[in-house]
Write a structure and sequence with these properties.
The complex is a heterodimer. Chain A contains eight helices and ten strands. Chain A is an alpha/beta fold. The chains are: A alpha/beta, B alpha/beta. At the A-B interface, helix 2 and helix 3 of A face helix 10 and helix 11 of B.
Chain lengths: 257, 470
């Protein structure tokens, strides 16, 4: 799908954490309707990219640009980015004791709808129906909505809760930061099926992963390899298989050559 | 809500919603300051029996003799001679809102009291400065013998019942502020619930200080007879003035065998009020006393609701919330005194401080010698919203018996950058995200409140949080 303006355009992005450069000139375009996999070894800068895109204040953008639907993202606070349709499924979601999943979803959805010009919050009954439907998609029990966000959740529940939020908020670009980590095979399947059900012409996905495993369930059209803060190789799905077969040393060698 | 507009002073919203004042002409106002003649004048205005005047004058002597507490907050700056100790706002008390003077009624309308009364309350008392201007209880409860009056009227109408209990739980000599209240008390609630009667909807009193440099000294006495139940709720607000006011109440509660009393306070005074209150209950066999005590306002609050567990099977529950913003000091907590075997108590305290405010827990668990088989748990959690705010924990234990089970847990946490970022990434603005975290922190207590008050609490927290993000 080619649109006039790219949905998300990252250009020559440099990011430092506590003064240390991590991303060193990363460029990437993700459009709605596309699924991109970004693969890389530990310490290559994958999570830094995810956090920088969402505006985590601990990550300092030293140069480059991030543009969403033609609008500069770097000037926006994290909540503005969220309302404009960026979504990050966290690798380590934080617990918020005392705040129920349902209550949180309602506030977040109301904020997102406002941004889209819908002043009125979704009526309670419709909201409940929506949440129930999305929970069913992720094979979550109804009682889940009343639990406190990520408080005492198992690893699998946390990841499912992230995808549930994505399902309710309907972002334009979803960044999945190692959503596969810490999941057993059944949980991985459920989460992947959830992502697949949500993907389509209105959603662009940036799937960040260390392992090829999740790509057995979610099929990207594009695969990029991140090494030492730069994308060193991009290709189609076959690239992931080559990586799986040959390991990251293989791309390090390409890079060195 | 626009974020730029939120870079206002803390509790800026308070001024508009609660901090207004009315220019009323009181029917009587004592002169500034305190001495025997002022006390005698208050008693005469109320046409009290001689014993009460005597009680007041003796209490005044106690007040003058006792030193100010040298712990807690800075009470040294209270200028006792600059305060008006008694102000009567209107001629008569009424059971009909339409008969309340228009200016005063408007205040209570703005605070939503008449509306709440219709919707979910069994009875309402409204005190304006020193006197109760409105008091009413639902007829079916009155028919069952439930008494809900302002305390002065109770002295007049039920002198024997009154005298049997008044001052028995908190004698004037208890502390300097209890002595002060005993000398100049006016207003407050008197409740008597007869044996076996269950009052299912709350009785509420609302306390409003309107005049500048005012002292409000209500006196509440609640007697819950055997097997009876009651839930009493008090709320309070005051105008925002540049100079200080004083609120010093005494609350005495007797919970008899198998009875249950819950006393809920949502204290929301303006930031110029010293709030120094003595609250104590005696719980007898298998009785339950619950204090739900939320302190959001005031300049300084020193308040430690107590339960004396007098007979086996008595249970105390103390839930305390203290929220201190800029220029505020909340020294709150609770006390449970296990005077009999097999009594239980649970204390949960949640304190929150921001913008340099200071909030803390001060509590005492005491187990008397021979009170075997007592159980007590204390949990106090503090949440700091920024670097320059302060939290203190003073958990005192006096355990004179070995065969008991006492648990104590305390945590201090800071509002996490990670939590804020997480909520914000979902589109929720920073101030709202911070308020969500705070509301979540106190949720174990708000979930105990009737729905209407839980909603009100969350709204008040939201108001406290406005302007917190610059």
């Amino acid at each position: 799908m080619v649109s006039a303006k790219p949905t998300l355009e990252i250009r020559d992005l440099h990011v430092a954490v506590e003064g240390k450069p991590i991303l060193k000139g990363l460029s990437l375009v993700v459009n709605k309707g596309e699924i991109h996999a970004l693969m890389g070894p530990n310490g290559s800068g994958k999570s830094t990219l995810a956090n920088a895109l969402m505006g985590n204040p601990k990550y300092e953008i030293t140069s480059g640009s991030i543009v969403l639907n033609g609008v500069d993202v770097l000037e926006m606070s994290p909540d503005e980015r969220g309302r404009k349709g960026l979504f990050l499924a966290f690798q380590y979601p934080t617990a918020i004791p005392g705040v129920s999943v349902a209550n949180f979803l309602r506030m977040a959805l109301t904020a997102r709808r406002k941004e889209m010009g819908i002043e009125k919050p979704l009526p309670p009954k419709e909201f409940r129906t929506l949440v129930k439907e999305k929970m069913a998609l992720l094979k979550m029990d109804d009682s889940f909505a009343a639990r406190y966000i990520n408080d005492g959740f198992s690893g699998g529940e946390k990841k499912r809760a992230e995808i549930l939020q994505m399902a309710v908020l309907q972002p334009e670009i979803a960044i999945l930061d190692e959503t596969d980590s810490g999941l057993d095979i059944d949980a991985l399947r459920i989460v992947s099926e959830g992502v697949n059900a949500l993907s389509g012409p209105n959603l662009g996905v940036l799937l960040i992963t260390h392992y090829q495993r999740i790509l057995n369930y979610i099929k990207p059209q594009f695969v990029h390899v991140l090494v030492d803060g730069r994308i060193v190789k991009s290709g189609g799905p076959e690239l992931a298989h080559e990586l799986e077969a040959q390991g990251y040393d293989w791309v390090r060698e390409i890079q060195a050559a | 809500m626009n974020e730029q507009q939120q870079t206002l002073d803390i509790r800026e919203g308070y001024k508009e919603k609660f901090g207004f004042h009315d220019d009323i002409a009181p029917v009587f106002k004592s002169r500034r300051g305190l001495d025997k003649s002022v006390v005698a004048e208050i008693s005469a205005m109320k046409k009290e029996p001689a014993w009460m005047l005597d009680f007041r004058l003796k209490a005044l002597e106690q007040f003058e003799k006792k030193p100010l507490p040298n712990w807690g907050g800075n009470v040294g700056e209270i200028d006792f001679q600059n305060i008006f100790y008694y102000l009567k706002p209107s001629e008569e008390q009424t059971k009909n809102w339409d008969e309340v003077p228009a200016d005063i009624k408007r205040t209570f309308d703005r605070l939503g009291i008449p509306e709440a009364e219709q919707k979910f309350l069994s009875g309402v008392g409204a005190q304006y400065d020193s006197e109760t201007v409105y008091h009413r209880i639902k007829q079916d409860l009155a028919d069952k013998g439930v008494i809900f009056l302002d305390t002065g009227s109770a002295l007049e109408q039920h002198p024997d019942l009154f005298r049997q209990y008044f001052g028995t739980i908190i004698p004037p000599s208890d502390n300097k502020f209890a002595a002060l209240n005993s000398a100049v008390w006016s207003g407050g609630s008197f409740i008597y619930v007869p044996k076996g009667v269950k009052v299912d909807m709350p009785l509420q009193a609302y306390f409003r200080i309107n005049a500048q440099n005012m002292g409000q000294f209500e006196r509440t006495l609640i007697i819950v007879d055997e097997g009876a139940w009651v839930h009493y709720v008090e709320g309070c607000t005051a105008p925002t003035y540049a100079s200080d006011s004083l609120h010093s109440a005494v609350v005495e509660i007797i919970v008899k065998k198998g009875a249950r009393c819950r006393y809920t306070t949502i204290q929301n005074w303006s930031n110029n009020v010293f709030n120094l209150v003595t609250k104590r209950a005696a719980a007898y066999q298998d009785a339950t006393m619950e204090w739900v005590d939320a302190n959001l306002g005031s300049k300084l609050t020193m308040k430690y609701p107590s339960v004396y567990l007098m007979e086996p099977g008595a249970h105390a529950e103390i839930l305390s919330i203290a929220f201190a913003g800029k220029g505020q000091h909340q020294d709150a907590g609770g006390k449970a005194v296990h005077a009999a075997p097999n009594t239980t108590s649970s204390v949960v305290s949640k304190s929150i401080s921001k913008d340099g405010g200071r909030a803390g827990y001060r509590g005492l668990i005491k187990v008397a010698k021979g009170a075997k088989g007592c159980k007590s748990t204390v949990r106090c959690d503090a949440l700091l919203l920024d670097e320059h705010s302060r939290s203190d924990t003073y958990p005192y234990m006096e355990i004179e018996e070995d065969q008991v089970s006492i648990g104590h847990e305390a945590t201090v946490s800071k509002i996490g950058d990670e939590q804020l970022f997480y909520l914000m990434s979902r589109g929720i603005p920073e101030a709202e995200a911070a308020a969500m975290i705070v509301n979540g922190f106190i949720e174990p207590i708000t979930k105990e409140l009737p729905m209407e008050y839980a909603v009100e609490m969350n709204r008040l927290i939201q108001l406290q949080m406005e302007g917190s993000v610059g």
